[in-house]
Each structure stands twice: as C-alpha cells, then as structure tokens.
Amino acid sequence: MIKLANFSSIFIANWKLNGNTEFINEYYQKLLPNSKNCVVVCSPSIFLNKLKNNNKNLFSGAQDTSIYIEGAFTGELSAKMLLDINIKFCLVGHSERREYFNETNETVNIKSLNLINNNIIPVICIGETLEQKEKKITKDVLTKQICESVPDLSNFENTLIAYEPIWAIGTGLTPSIQDIDEVHSFIKDIDIRFNKFKVLYGGSVKASNSAEINSLKNVDGCLVGGASLKVEEFNKIIS
Ligand code: 13P
Which domains are assigned to the chain? Predict the structure, then answer.
C-alpha cells in the first residue's frame, strides 16, 4: 500500500465519464506532477492501464469497484483485478454513484473493505445536499455517512475521506473557506479514530481557488472534477 504520510497533499482528478485515447495520450504527455504532492488520475476503467510512468508521485486510480470478489457478476470489476493491474487508489461512494446507481453506506463499506484487503486505498466520498444544508443537518448527515461507510479496518494509513458537498459539485459554488475548514475539522473529530485521517475537499475546485482551500489546516488535498479535464488547469492545481 502507498504510504500516505509521504505526501504533504493529495490531488485526485476525477474524470467521470469523459476521455478517449487521444485525449489521454496528450494529457499524460502534458501532466506535470511534482515531488511533494501525490497526484492520482481516476480515468474510466477501460483506460486505467494507459498511464505508463515511473514517477513515484503519480498514480492511476479507479472510480468504483464491485462489492463482489469474483464470480458470475457480469460487468463488474473487482478490487483484486484493480490490484492485478497495480492500481493504488479507488473512489468509493461518490455522490453520483449514490444518486444514480443506488450506492448506499453499506455497499460503500463493503467496497472499501475489499479495497483495503487488496492494498488499495479507498477514497470514501461523503457530502450533504443543498436541502440538507439549508435544514442545517449537514453534521448529522456526515456523521451517519462516515460511521456507516468507513469500515472498522480503516485507519489514517489505508483510507482517505473526501468531503464533497453535493451542491458544490459542477456548480461553480463552494462553501466559504471558513466553512470548509470547520467541516473538515468536524469530520476529523467525529470519533477519535478519525483524528489523523487525511480529508480531501471536492466541489468546484479550480486553479483560482485550490491554493487557498489546500492551505487550510484541516484540508489534505483536493478531489477535482471538471477542472481536472483541462491538463493546464490541473497542472496549476497540483503545483
Ligand atoms: P467538480 O470539480 O466538477 O465540481 O466535481 C467535483 C467532483 O465530483 C469530483 O469528484
């Protein structure tokens, strides 16, 4: 398993359902990882093997995995298969998977456990909807998501948490800088066992706001969607 403690910050590109061979070849040619930060590119699974690199800070990551280990489950991709092609990180429980593919805290927990058992770091995504924020129940929502999604076996060395307020994803809106810091601090204090976890922020991160967000004491990196599709922009974010 990758040693997360070796990196001061972790930046993850989530390409979602975007990209093709030409795009990827150009992207990897132009991507400029640096020595202090960990950079992970979560491409669609068919392209996971496209990253040929010998940079020890740059990794290819998956966007999802199966709850199953092997067998008659057509269309699925197991954690063991991801390990087999040397994948070190995998997103789990992204809000789009929770919303469109019936992902639940329970399935997130099982998938994360499968990943850890295969030496792959799950990036467990949590976040509140706008309605929940307006009802002022963000902390209750996050507490339930964390307590139910994070397996008992998880610790700060084998698991990452990504806080992505759903209303900030793809909207250009972000919480205030103070709110981000407060929520991240809250997450780390939900239980003593989460104290040392690295918590990434996601939701409308771009080159113009990433440095300020990432400078927060309780922010350990960023999960970037739309802005990660433009390699020049992503280079600025990770620099
Ligand atoms: P945007 O950066 O496009 O808001 O998406 C965030 C996200 O969903 C990353 O997982």
Answer: 4-238 (3.20.20.70)
